[in-house]
Design a protein that fits this description.
Layout: E1 8-12, H1 17-28, E2 32-37, H2 40-49, E3 58-62, H3 68-74, E4 80-83, H4 90-95, H5 97-117, E5 122-128, H6 137-152, E6 162-168, E7 170-171, H7 178-187, E8 192-194, E9 200-204, H8 206-219, E10 225-228, E11 232-234, H9 235-243, E12 250-252, E13 264-266, H10 268-271, E14 274-276, E15 280-283, H11 293-296, E16 312-313, H12 324-327
Parallel strand pairs: 1-2, 1-4, 2-3, 4-5, 5-6, 6-10, 7-9, 8-12
Antiparallel strand pairs: 9-11, 10-15, 13-16, 14-15
Helix pairs in contact: 1-8, 3-5, 5-6, 7-9
Length: 332
């Protein structure tokens, strides 16, 4: 992200796995950062972990994205918003669908409204590969969240506010990740629990997730979805790498509600309007014809790029090349 002049950047879900790392990186780059989260204790801990040299650069906002009035106040004077706040656990969302809707959809709508009201320049929504052909409540809300963000550009005309999305795979060593679960089970002398030996996932490091957010802010036109070039891997291989054994003690418990055996980075229809760039895939909005002329004309630069021919799945052997022993060395 180019930083010619100090800008005010707000991160929702600022105490989460991605949000907290994004806050720290933005502070390093000289931005004034508004950390917005609904956990008082985690905001306090985030503040304690920030170096003294950043004290005059961080603003702590206690609030919930479900509360529009609080969000609207926090957005005043903000130039860029990274919307990271969400309910992300598939299993919990299946048993709490109404609460998931309140956060993942009503909250998204509040972010959009507050951004327009306060003339925020750029707004980035952090989504998930679970939004692709979703089988879970969480995935469905992420899909609709993407649609809301993309559609928000249709109403802007010549207004300065633009909305775009990024899609993550599974973030290694994030809160609730399989790595932390496996490490805890090993420390307790328990068997490693996996849902299926056939399960595959796309993986991304926290650093890659942050870089994708920053890249999308630099490159965004409005309405597109940025997806990192991600490799996929088998959950059983992670178990072997974490346990440092070729035959770890495994308890196969079966797929939980809402889960899939494999994930996808984009749908078959999206592939037809997806181009492959150096470090990422760019999904051009399906509703391009509905966007204001000022946005639509900027997409002309991509007309000569070849589109993908098929979707990308985590069980595709051509993308299943992760060396987990090497990747997980910093986490074991």
């Amino acid at each position: 992200m180019k930083n010619d002049n100090p800008k005010r950047v707000l991160v929702t879900g600022a105490c989460g796995s991605v949000g907290s790392e994004l806050v720290k990186e933005l502070l390093k780059r000289g931005y004034i950062v508004c950390a917005f989260d609904n956990s008082e204790d985690n905001l306090f801990q985030l503040d304690q972990n920030i170096k003294d040299s950043y004290k005059n650069k961080i603003r702590l906002f206690f609030g919930d994205i479900r509360d529009y009035d609080r969000l609207n106040m926090a957005f005043k004077g903000v130039d860029i918003v990274y919307h990271c706040a969400a309910l992300k656990h598939v299993y919990l969302s299946e048993y709490n669908p109404f609460e998931t809707i309140k956060t993942n959809l009503n909250g998204v709508n509040n972010v959009i409204k507050a951004s327009i009201e306060n003339k925020v320049k750029k707004v980035i929504f952090t989504s998930s590969d679970k939004a692709v052909n979703p089988t879970s409540t969480m995935g469905a809300t992420k899909l609709l969240g993407e649609r809301l963000f993309i559609a928000a550009n249709n109403y802007m005309g010549n207004n300065i506010t633009r909305f775009s999305c990024v899609r993550f795979g599974n973030i290694l060593n994030s809160n609730g990740s399989v790595i932390k679960i496996f490490k805890s089970q090993l420390e307790q002398g328990e068997c490693l629990t996996i849902t299926s030996k056939e399960m595959t996932r796309f993986f991304i490091t926290k650093e890659e997730a942050i870089n994708l957010c920053l890249l999308s802010c630099d490159e965004m036109i409005g309405g597109e979805i940025f997806v990192l070039h991600m490799f996929s891997g088998n959950i059983l291989e992670i178990a072997k790498a974490i346990s440092k054994s070729h035959k770890p003690k495994i308890n196969e418990i079966g797929i939980k509600p809402g889960e899939k055996i494999y994930e996808e980075l984009l749908t078959n229809e999206e592939a037809k309007r997806t181009i492959k760039l150096k470090n990422f895939y760019l999904i051009i909005p399906e509703t391009l014809y509905m966007l204001p002329d000022i946005i639509r004309k900027k997409y002309l630069k991509y007309d000569e790029f070849k589109k993908l021919k098929k979707p990308i799945r985590s069980d595709d052997k051509s993308s299943n090349k992760l060396d987990f022993k090497k990747i997980l060395k910093d986490y074991i």
